[in-house]
Design goal:
heterodimer; A: 222 residues; alpha/beta; two-stranded antiparallel ribbon; 8 helices; B: 532 residues; alpha+beta; 6-stranded antiparallel barrel; 31% helix
Chain lengths: 222, 532
């Protein structure tokens, strides 16, 4: 049945609103492909225009950074690392991507938040990593939740992907939460890192979507 | 017939001093030549003149006539800038220019084809007005006549009939010796027209060849070659404050004015700014920059004072590149531009966190230009959306956490653990310079999280194997250990270093790296540990 002439389609309304209020219109969702199959499996990687929280013990967070550096080398992208605990050890990573990674060492959680705020407002870098893993939970708890919502508003406008590396879930506004788990022994220090990747268990949660357990991720990849 | 244009900046010293303060022209201000008390008035604004202040008056006499009078010493550096501006702007009219005198130059207009000289001259005056300069222009058939016309112009005067114009010009205005002028006055000759009516040969016979040259001027026939000068290609502005300043506001005000002028000049030359050099002249004494970017923890976020109070903590680090009486800083513009706002933001960001040990008394800004074409190429190649904004953000980050804590990692050429430095990113140069590389990780083991500085620790050994570990961060029984890894270097000089490293696993499953350095044990980092 043909639609009456006075009925406007929802798509047309959205187009009109986007044309009149371009700032309010959501940007098309893009993703930063990490090269980590479990993380990329859900939607193609870490979303731009959104805050992603990566919860893991210290050892696993470094694996994510390793993937980011590899991705920078491969895609010739630019990113920033805001190191909250001044814990980043360049000797643990391939130095090839360092010229593409702006590194900022901070002393406190408050300083880290300010630095991240400046980088997100700048909008020049497509990925910002805020590493708070080495910071005591006490100081992380003092970061007001409004900060994360503000970051979410900023990345929506700038199209930057913000990944917050935390020891426990603290980012309320995170659209995507990734948890990494692994158990290591000293023998792991002598194994190639690509082998160790396979032992890290990743779970990806998307706000508004069903929890995605590891088994399901693997079945999707298959 | 060829034409010459003389461009005169009346009240040259006054214009130089007040160029960036247009509002000051409505106040009684006088330029003083010499010492403040014994000096004499050189030039003055109209309100001062109305109050009875005249050139040549002693300062005290001028103040007696006009108590509200502000006496300003000559700003020689600013006069130099204005002289450059005069030549540069005249150079946009003709390539053949002569720097005739202070605040006066003559251009040969042989290549200028103007249908209406009056309109053309007004256009030139407007160009000077854009540079905040009041110019008078005289156009005539020879250089000396053009100079005389410029002195009578309001603001432009075209001399089509030299005889009629010279008839009313006082003889004292001509370029001749004072003795000759006095003698002619004694003869009752007060205007050039009167002199031109005398027979030339008899005048030379009585008064010599100098009188002949003067007669040529009076008749409007004096022809001479111009002493041509090369146009300066320097883009700089300078300003000396009347009093030492305490806050950034007046400095920013002047810097914006200076940038507006410089970018205007750059635009006319089809250039853009590639580098800026900011020089802040300090009051006598040791001016020491104490930028928060060098200290990292001294950022003055809201404070606008440029130098701390006497009880303030002034850092003692002596500037290596700055002389005692000045602070100098070079800014490379990430993406060369002629945009005043962008350039101003770069300066503003830096000044927000700058503290000086002495009060500034002047500011100088110099721009190194680059052709716009060259920069345009880089703009399209840039991997950054807005390189200038990024440069500004880097400046803010440096102010917040210290310059040594921002940058890209550059490993040092040594095997010593944890030796690297952060250097300024060169993202612009990365564009197209590297091919995509493999994403395959070539590293071994787990990434380390370092403790900086390393935490003091105690470790117990049994048969050369660690058995117990204790530090502020962790303690417990060592159930497994890898080591010792002994590393050393630079044994040949005083920077010799030596470490003994162990990787240990504690009974709770956590993995750490410990090291022995100069006889003491330290906890270097953590591979994996429970959340604190």
């Amino acid at each position: 049945m043909p639609s009456p002439a006075n009925v406007i389609s929802l798509a047309a309304v959205r187009e009109t609103l986007a044309a009149r209020f371009p700032e309010a219109a959501p940007l098309p969702v893009r993703h930063w492909t990490t090269g980590w199959a479990e993380i990329d499996a859900l939607e193609g990687g870490v979303p731009h225009n959104a805050v992603t929280e990566l919860c893991s013990p210290a050892g696993c967070g470094g694996f994510f950074l390793d993937r980011v550096l590899a991705s920078l080398r491969e895609r010739r992208g630019l990113a920033a690392l805001v190191d909250g605990g001044h814990a980043f050890d360049p000797g643990s990573y391939d130095a090839g991507a360092f010229p593409r990674l702006l590194t900022v060492f901070c002393e406190t959680a408050e300083q880290s938040v300010k630095v991240t705020d400046l980088l997100l407002r700048d909008g020049n870098l497509s990925l910002v990593l805020l590493d708070l893993q080495a910071m005591p939970l006490r100081s992380l708890g003092r970061i007001p939740s409004s900060t994360w919502h503000r970051f979410q508003r900023l990345v929506e406008r700038s199209g930057t992907a913000l990944v917050v590396l935390t020891p426990q879930p603290i980012v309320e506004a995170a659209r995507v939460r990734i948890t990494l788990r692994a158990s290591w022994s000293l023998a792991a220090l002598q194994r190639p890192r690509r082998e160790l990747f396979e032992k890290v268990q990743a779970q990806v949660y998307r706000r508004g979507k069903q929890v995605l357990p590891m088994e399901e991720v693997h079945s999707r990849i298959a | 017939m060829s034409w010459f244009a003389a461009i005169l900046l009346p009240q040259f010293s006054l214009q130089a001093a007040l160029r960036l303060h247009e509002e000051a022209w409505s106040q009684p201000i006088a330029i003083l030549e010499g010492d403040t008390e014994k000096g004499r008035v050189l030039e003055m604004t109209e309100p001062a003149q109305r109050s009875g202040v005249w050139p040549g008056m002693v300062a005290t006499q001028a103040l007696a006539r006009c108590p509200a009078l502000r006496l300003v010493p000559r700003a020689h550096a600013q006069e130099e800038v204005v002289s450059t501006l005069l030549l540069e702007t005249t150079g946009t009219v003709s390539p053949f220019i002569e720097a005739t005198a202070e605040g006066l130059c003559v251009a040969d207009l042989r290549q200028v084809k103007a249908a209406n000289w009056e309109q053309w001259a007004c256009g030139v005056v407007e160009r000077f007005a854009a540079r905040k300069l009041r110019a008078c222009i005289g156009v005539a058939s020879n250089p000396d006549l053009a100079v005389l016309a410029a002195r009578h112009a309001e603001p432009a005067l075209i001399v089509q009939h030299p005889g009629a114009f010279l008839a009313g010009v006082a003889i004292s205005e001509a370029d001749a010796s004072p003795e000759l002028i006095t003698l002619l006055r004694d003869w009752g000759i007060h205007h050039l027209g009167e002199l031109a009516r005398l027979p030339r040969s008899e005048l030379i016979e009585r008064l010599g060849p100098a009188a002949g040259a003067l007669w040529e001027q009076a008749a409007g026939r004096a022809q001479r070659e111009l002493r041509l000068v090369r146009l300066p290609e320097t883009y700089w502005e300078t300003y000396e404050f009347e009093h030492p300043i305490e806050t950034t506001e007046p400095l920013l005000f002047i810097l914006r004015r200076q940038l507006e002028q410089l970018t205007l000049r750059l635009a006319e030359a089809y250039r853009v700014a590639a580098q800026m050099t900011l020089t802040i002249l300090l009051e006598l004494g040791w001016g020491q920059p104490s930028e928060s970017e060098t200290g990292g923890k001294r950022a003055v976020a809201s404070g606008r004072k440029l130098f701390p109070s006497t009880d303030g903590a002034v850092p003692s680090s002596a500037p290596s590149a700055n002389s005692p009486d000045r602070y100098e800083r070079v800014f490379t513009v990430p993406s060369p531009t002629g945009d005043t706002e962008v350039l101003f933001r770069i300066l503003h960001t830096h000044l927000e966190s700058l503290q000086l040990a002495q009060q500034p008394i002047g500011v100088r800004l110099r721009i190194e230009p680059i052709t716009a074409d060259a920069s345009q190429f880089q703009l399209f190649e840039s991997p950054l959306r807005d390189p200038n904004r990024f440069g500004e953000t880097l400046g803010r980050l440096a102010a917040l956490v210290g310059a040594e804590n921002v940058g890209v990692v550059q490993m040092e050429d040594t095997y010593q653990p944890d030796r690297f430095r952060l250097v300024a990113p060169q993202f612009q140069q990365l564009a197209g310079s590297q091919k995509p590389e493999s994403s395959e990780s070539r590293t071994l083991g787990l990434p380390l999280h370092r403790f900086r500085p390393p935490l003091p620790a105690q470790i117990h050994f049994q048969r050369h194997v660690p058995t117990w570990f204790s530090s502020l961060e962790a303690q417990g029984e060592v159930i497994d250990a890898l080591g010792p890894y002994r590393v050393s270097g630079q044994w040949w000089d005083q920077h010799a270093w030596s470490f003994e490293e162990w990787d240990i696993e504690l009974s709770d499953g956590s993995l750490y790296r410990v090291s022995k350095h100069q006889g003491s044990w330290f906890l270097e980092g953590c591979y994996d540990a429970p959340v604190r």
